[in-house]
Amino acid sequence: MKIAYYNEIDPYAAQWLRNLISAGLIAPGDVDERDIADVRADDVRGYKQAHFFAGIGGWSYALRLAGWPDDRPVWTGSCPCQPFSSASRGRARGLDDKRHLWPEWRRLIAAIAPSVVFGEQVAASYEWQAQSSHDLEVLGYEVGAAIIPACALGFDHARPRYYFAGHSDRDGKSSLQVDGKMAGLQRHRSDAGVVVSPDGVPSRMAVFSAFGNAIVPQVAAAFIESAMTSLPLQSNE
Predict the structure, then answer these.
(1) How far apart are CA 116 and CA 144, in angstroms?
(2) How far apart are CA 213 and CA 39, in angstroms?
(3) Whole domain around residue 129: which residue ranges?
């Protein structure tokens, strides 16, 4: 049975995903290493979950931490942050940057219309936030969002990130709410660490790159739990 589709262009991260799938740490599924621009709607159709810019599987792991079943439909994505990140050292061009891939993900969202979409971006991506929220609303989604730093869950670094959720019941009756204060964050344990697979590590730089581009699953899980309080309970959306 097809459960999850993972799209990740980096070969090292893609192999890491396969290792994690084999270890049973993330939802079972297929890993597609093509550029998202080459992915068509029919390539994704039929999967319960679809994870774009999948990295090392942080979103799938976060869903499990939050109690989201593998067979409950959902799409996730963490679009490249380089066009909007201060770490780009002046090379970022925002919405005009060729690494701005939200339009490609939006194309697939529009074609398949998943009922629930979760995503993440650097906190300072104001243009990206405005465009993605507007686009989702045009497509019939109600959007909830919050900026959450990793230190809110007890981690020793700030790493503030913009998390968003989009929901549509296809009838325009969504009632998605996300608690902006995220008052329950402190009750989450922060000693679980980040998912790690030691197999096939070619260099320390590859590991640092994989972690640098990854979400903190425990933070994403806290956001997912907050959104789940107002999402429909059915597993066959």
Answers:
(1) 11
(2) 21
(3) 4-228
Within 10 angstroms of residue 69's Cβ, the number of other Cβ atoms is 13
**Does 215 fall in a domain?**
yes
Using CA atoms, how far apart are residues 115 and 72, in angstroms rounded to an integer? Answer: 10
Residues 160-192 pLDDT 10s: 888 999 998 755 444 555 544 443 333 333 334
- Condensed to tens digits (0 to 9), the pLDDT of residues 99-116 reads 678 999 999 999 999 999
One-letter amino acid identity for 223? F
Instruction: Say how far apart CA 137 and CA 160 lie, in whole Å.
Output: 24
Q: Report how far residue 31's alpha carbon sits from residue 11's, in angstroms, rounded to the nearest whole number.
A: 10
E strands, 39-122, where?
A: 49-52, 74-77, 116-122
pLDDT at residue 235, rounded to an integer: 39
Q: Tell me if 51 is assigned to some domain.
A: yes
